[in-house]
Specification:
heterodimer; A: alpha/beta; Metallo-beta-lactamase, Chain A; seven-stranded mixed beta sheet; 6 helices; B: mainly beta; five-stranded mixed beta sheet; about 0% helix; binds zinc ion
């Protein structure tokens, strides 16, 4: 058996942080997921959850943090934690940020931009850590033990999903993706909400057989018609993708800032019922801050 | 009359509000309500910082079930936060049906270890 991977949710909220008693259970921090595999510290997105991950890394007493940061895209809710990521201030830390597309290192430039003096008191250049930019080659990057693949998604300004192959395990992080714009059976799915929402073969293949799929399922079916084009999917459509791709576990992610814990729970229950009705073997749940899985 | 800025023990709400960090209001303790498995129904208050549940005598809460490891899971209290961590148990720890390595816990969470099921109450009597 290969080495296990650990996945921890540090921020699961979409769009904007939502502190307060109504969101305690699922959490109010924005997107940040940690994947640990052997010595690898892989971080998906730098929303406000990244701040707490940074504090935890320091507390774990890791003398030297070496982290790989993968950004789905650079909208606020995915980068806002970076200026508060304590390891970035430590001289002996090493942080690699990844660009999917070749050309100028855009991710680093944008992280830089949000720390301009008009926005933030500390300059990017004053961060103590060694921060390097690295680019995917033809949608793949090899870290020597972990292979990461990228996949372009439907989102205003575009976003990317990442598939991490850690030993025998496959973990897919796919947030900020409007799956509902991609359905290959739009007419059938529009007429019959219960019909399986079919997704393009390339996307299904990208997700195929994942041990864990973490996917944006911000909206209920009832809400979505008012949010078309905003870049997020219906939780029920995520369930259908997970089922089609034979995913073992699916964590619905990027919860709507308008949703209380009870509302998230209702959304998740509906998606689970949908899978049950199909006799699906996929286990679906709502991604929740502070939950750590061992795969 | 108390001096300005100091607390008068006679007129403050001592005994009604706990100001000791980590203790819930009114001194109510977080509690595991065992709803299934050997010995159920019963309640285990989480009175100490770390409570180990398992089949063995080294656990703080011992439950006589062959499906539990000797030291199966630990419940931790840190300030107001409650969490659990699987202690490399044979059969795993399921929080609301999801197999968890560790988790921050909230009111009403169900926690399953083998044939034992708990419901967590953040501040029960
Ligand atoms: Zn977002
Ligand atoms: Zn976005």
């Amino acid at each position: 058996m290969s080495e296990p991977s650990f996945v921890r949710f540090w921020g699961t909220r979409g769009s904007i942080p939502t502190p307060g008693h109504k969101t305690r259970r699922y959490g109010g921090n924005t997107s940040c997921v940690e994947i640990r595999h052997g010595d690898f510290e892989l971080v998906c997105d730098g929303g406000t959850g990244l701040r707490e991950l940074g504090l935890d890394l320091v507390q774990r007493g890791r003398p030297r943090v070496s982290a790989h940061l993968f950004f789905s895209h650079m909208h606020w809710d995915h980068i806002q934690g970076f200026p508060f990521f304590v390891p970035a201030y430590a001289k002996d830390s090493e942080i690699v940020v990844y660009d999917v597309e070749a050309g100028r290192p855009r991710v680093e430039e944008l992280l830089h931009g949000q720390m301009r003096s008009e926005y933030f008191p500390v300059n990017f250049g004053d961060l103590g850590a060694e921060i390097r930019a690295r680019t995917f080659e033809q949608n793949v990057v090899e870290l020597g033990g972990v292979t990461v693949r990228s996949f372009e998604q439907a989102h205003p300004g575009k976003s990317f999903a990442y598939a991490f192959e850690c030993g025998e395990k496959k973990i897919v992080y796919a947030t900020d993706s409007e799956l509902d714009l991609l359905l290959t059976n739009q007419d059938e799915a529009g007429e019959d909400p219960a019909a399986l929402r079919r997704l393009p073969a390339a996307l299904v293949a990208f997700v195929e057989g994942a041990d864990l799929l973490i996917a944006d399922g911000q909206y209920t079916d009832a809400e979505y018609p008012h949010k078309i084009g905003w870049g997020h999917a219906r939780a029920n459509t995520v369930a259908d993708l997970a089922h089609q791709a034979g995913v073992k576990q699916c964590a619905v992610f990027h919860h709507d800032p308008l949703h209380s814990d009870d509302a998230v729970e209702q959304k998740i229950r509906a998606a689970c019922d949908r899978l049950d009705a199909r006799g699906s073997r996929t286990l679906l749940f709502g991604a929740r801050e502070g939950l750590e899985l061992k795969l | 009359m108390p001096k300005t800025g100091s607390l008068d023990p006679d007129s403050t709400l001592a005994g009604q509000i706990s100001i000791v960090s980590g203790l819930p209001r009114g001194g109510k303790l977080p509690t595991l309500e065992q709803v299934r498995g050997p010995g159920a129904p019963r309640r285990f208050p989480l009175a100490i910082a770390e409570t180990v549940v398992g089949r063995g005598q080294q656990a703080n809460v011992t439950i006589d079930s062959a499906l539990l490891s000797r030291r199966h899971v630990v419940f931790r209290r840190s300030g107001p936060e409650l969490s659990l961590a699987d202690l490399d148990s044979q059969n795993g720890v399921f929080v609301n049906g999801v197999k968890a390595h560790s988790a921050v816990l909230h009111e009403g969470d169900t926690i399953q270890l083998g044939d034992v099921v708990f419901v967590l109450h953040e501040a029960a009597e």
